[in-house]
Amino acid sequence: MKNNIDLTVAIPTYNGAKRLPQLLEKLQNQQGTESFNWEIIVVDNNSHDATASIIKKYQSTWQCHYKLKYVFEPKQGLAYARERAIMESQGKLIAFLDDDNYPNNMWVLAAYKFARNHPHVGAYGSQIHPQWETKPPEEFARITPFLAITERGNIPLLYEADQKLLPPGAGLVINKQAWLECVPNQMILAGRISGNMLAGEDIEMLSYIQRGGWEIWYNPEMEIYHQIPAWRLTREYLIPFFEGIGLSRYVTRMVNIHPRLRPIFSIGYIVNDIRKIIFHFLKYHLRAKTNLVSDCEMQLFISSLISPFYLWFNGYFSHKLKDKIS
């Protein structure tokens, strides 16, 4: 058997002590992986619970042929945890799982095989099914993709750049060479942290890879079940959640736009956001504060409109960082 590592499963986690055991059990039961070498890295993103001790306990009794590693990343933010995983990984492929993403027992094999069949792939996402703790509100299907639910059928799909659509970071496999060639050492968006729901780090990362000429795919054979607790369906969570998505949009919209064309595109996006706000208001204003889904959509449109002004005012476009989208 080869000594090099073909694939690294990286698990960024924050206070995941209660969720990690089930995920590790799923990874212990992966099938068909005997023909290649892989490893698991848990990246503890500054947790304050028993995450470290849980992993150490598993390590003490670990008998699988693939290693279970633990690293601590003190800088808060999913982007920093993923960067640490890239640095620590030995695999040519890095397969990311959130601690509430439970893969089926062929997920690792499917991740490995897909790259072998698609030599120009820079990244590819999973088919992600929801596991609701409670039944979601009426019309919730309109916004489920924002919760990393990705059900695009059972045929692999290539994400074309002009479609303005990319997979979520949950269940995503990255070609390490593509990351090292295309993704800057410090991205503009770091991910949600306590007191700041600003999102978009997944789309920013993938936009750099796509801009670098690498293919990005959807691989339905990599199936995941995303655990969604009841509190993630509440207004108190969802409105700030959609606000954070919207506020990050100027970055994700402009990564693949030539700097000279950005003023023109910015005006176009502003006009389009205003149009969406007006039409959405006319359609749903009589149901204001009674329909959670429409309120989330309106928050997304408003936050998208003010995104460039918010990011500029809060220092996201310092001279050091502006180069990342130029």
- Count of spatially separate domains: 2
Percent range of helical residues: 25-40%
Q: Mind describing the biggest β-sheet?
A: 9 strands, mixed
Poorly predicted runs are 319-326
Average pLDDT score: 91
Describe this structure as you would to a colleague.
Helix 5 (176-182) packs across helix 6 (201-211), helix 7 (235-247) crosses helix 10 and helix 9 (262-284) packs antiparallel against helix 10 (292-313). Strands 1, 2, 3, 4, 5, 6, 7, 8 and 9 form a 9-stranded mixed sheet that branches. The chain is built from 11 helices and 9 strands. Residues 319-326 have low confidence and may be disordered. Helix content is 39%, strand content 18%. The chain is globular, with a radius of gyration of 20 Å. The relative contact order is 0.13. It is of the alpha/beta class. The chain has helices spanning 20-28, 51-60, 78-88, 107-117, 176-182, 201-211, 235-247, 249-254, 262-284, 292-313, 319-322; strands at residues 7-13, 38-44, 67-72, 93-96, 101-103, 121-132, 157-158, 173-175, 215-228. The chain has 2 domains: 7-232, Spore Coat Polysaccharide Biosynthesis Protein SpsA, Chain A (Alpha-Beta Complex); 238-325. The longest helix has 23 residues, at 262-284.
Task: List the topology elements.
Blueprint lengths: L6 E7 L6 H9 L9 E7 L6 H10 L6 E6 L5 H11 L4 E4 L4 E3 L3 H11 L3 E12 L24 E2 L14 E3 H7 L18 H11 L3 E14 L6 H13 L1 H6 L7 H23 L7 H22 L5 H4 L4
Parallel strand pairs: 1-2, 1-4, 2-3, 6-9
Antiparallel strand pairs: 4-8, 5-9, 6-8, 7-9
Helix pairs in contact: 5-6, 7-10, 9-10
Question: What are its keywords?
Answer:
326 residues; alpha/beta; Spore Coat Polysaccharide Biosynthesis Protein SpsA, Chain A; 11 helices; globular; disordered C terminus
